[in-house]
Design goal:
- Chain A: Belongs to the amidase family. GatA subfamily.
- The structure holds two protein chains of two kinds.
- By secondary structure, chain A is an alpha/beta fold.
- Chain A contains 19 helices and eleven strands.
- In chain A, strands 1-3-2-4-6-5-10-11-9-7-8 form an eleven-stranded mixed sheet, with helices on both faces.
- By secondary structure, chain B is mainly α.
- Chain B contains seven helices and two strands; from the N terminus they run αααααββαα.
- Chain B has helices spanning about 10-20, 35-45, 50-60, 70-80, 120-125, 140-145, 170-179, and strands at about 130, 130-135.
- Mean pLDDT of chain B is about 65; it is low at about 5-45, about 140-165 and about 165-179.
- The chains are: A alpha/beta, B mainly alpha.
- Chains A and B meet through helix 10, helix 11, helix 12, helix 13 and helix 14 of A and helix 1, helix 3, helix 4 and helix 5 of B.
Amino acid sequence: MLRAALREVSTALKEGRVSPTELCQRCLSLIKTTKFLNAYITVTEDTALRQAEESEKRYRRGQSLGDLDGIPVAVKDNFSTAGIETTCASNMLKGYIPPYNATVVQKLLDQGAVLIGKTNLDEFAMGSGSTDGIFGPVRNPWSYSRQYKEKCGQNSRLENEDSSWLIAGGSSGGSAAAVSSFTCFAALGSDTGGSTRNPAAHCGVVGLKPTYGLVSRHGLIPLVNSMDVPGILTRCVDDAATVLGVLAGHDPKDSTTVQDPFNPFELPSVIDVSKFCIGIPKEYHIPGLSSETLAVWSKAADLFENAGARVIEVSLPHTCYSIVCYHVLCTAEVASNMARFDGLEYGHRSNIDKSTESMYAATRREGFNDVVRGRILSGNYFLLKQNYEKYFIKAQKVRRLIANDFVNVFNSGVDVLLTPTTLRDAVPYVEFIKEDNRTRSAQDDIFTQAANMSGLPAVSIPTALSEKGLPIGLQFVGHAFQELQLLTVAKWFEKQAKFPILQLQEMLDHADALSHQKISLFS
Amino acid sequence: MWALRNSGCLCAAWSWGRSRLARGTAGGRQTDQNPEWQLEEQKLLPQKKVTMELLDHLERLALVDFRNWEGVERLEKAIQFADQLHEVNTEGIEPMDSVLEDRCLYLREDNITEGNCTKELLQNASQTADEYFESPPDSLQKAAFCKLRCSFFAGENLVTGNIPLPKLEEHESFLQDSN
């Protein structure tokens, strides 16, 4: 039951084959078994059970609120949740209890969804591994999969476990790991430069970044206001469409949501791809791309061509500068956004109280990690009076060129672009931390951030397993506000790809072994 | 059959990231082993960018400190990386603030829709006095004390010439290193 897609379990709830409480309890128990993944920062057991009970009453009365009623969902810990600690995985917000719900959280609750917990991330969502938060790194569930173990041929796996486990990707790694390890049916992530799609690719789930302006950011603790978008992580494309249907639409509390009416849609069950034109951007073929990811990408293009779709090579000539441009704009907005954390109104406050300024400075020194401080400082550098034109305005001009590249390609008749999501499959944690956060982000966001710069919707679809038995994801990028078209193409592709389900038994055995040995990895 | 050719386009950005593998981390002043990268470095870093005055200025603006030499290194690398932007011809191109620039910005009616939440809001502050957030007692007390409630204090200048940032033990040592 837990492995089912959201749609299937929704049907089971409606038919009374499972009750919301039972479902909630099963998820909670699996969260306990898989605690070593470190996917959750807070598990909201009591409120979840209460919400499940409410849902159960509604079902008994025949007054279910819809597809999400009684469905356990998880939310990244950078969305405000009323009465529930929201930390951004930072000392700065440890203990912070928001007085209100983010609009997207409220919309989920209004539909009867059961909020099961808040998921782990990189501090303030700055990172691409979910390794840089104060609660420790998220472990990729595929590290413990039968598929990976078989390919790696590790017989003495328990001994090697601590060096061989893989990163989940980031920064929404906790949400991706939660959906992938069956502890919830959908999760919210956030996506500023690829933070939903990257971990989705590494954990073998669907990760959707909607068009900028379609989904409210109210209550999402901001990283880069002009690029942040709430992301959706699910086990299949249909589920992503269902959740999008609930979340999308104008919010009076977020003036950057568009006022066009949004009609929730169901994706067609029979899809003819021959009417679509798929663009393959040639600049996305770069030296660092792994040969297997390249092969999977090529094969996917063949698949579309063989099904009668028009597949053409296209050019996005400014691609190579996109990550550089992103780096400047991101740090500049971060510098400005992080100014709010001063210790006075909420969050951490230092004991140093010689003066207000020394308290501010000490609070920020104690509250932020090196990555956050580094981005604040470089952002301030790019925003200096003497650098403003040279870096910030320059980057904004390059941003227009990048956005125009997409406009030109889409105007030439392309419906959807097909690209890799990441350069390669997930790497072991010990490998990942050999490089600093900025370098890692520059590599890992390389295919994803351009969609944020241009505001376009993009989705990562789990496609195949690598030689090591790990997920490889491909990304589709669509026209602005054309999620229906984007997800229709993605759904067709998902069906062809037949991505295998994560074989968890190994992981559960592992958890059992650990609990027998009374090892608590994260206490 | 789809044969994807290798594009040279991303080489600049990519070789930057890759070549760091060969670079040492501490100090960052040793000569690089990678000839391709040396060229880039010469092109991108004609002179040392960050002076001590600038570091000091940035720390005051950002109200965070570099903490150690690695923090300064991180800034220098971030600048180097950003300098690649100058290869792009942006003549006649307008800067882009937002992807929604062609749409009307929504303004809601100026009506009170929520409020009476003083207690809730104050709960998240670690120090309060009555209905106020409390800042450390100093000459700027009034301005900061009334940050939320009393906009009429805005006339008092919060920014003074001399912000007493906490001094770091390391601060001295990296000052010397750089001389």
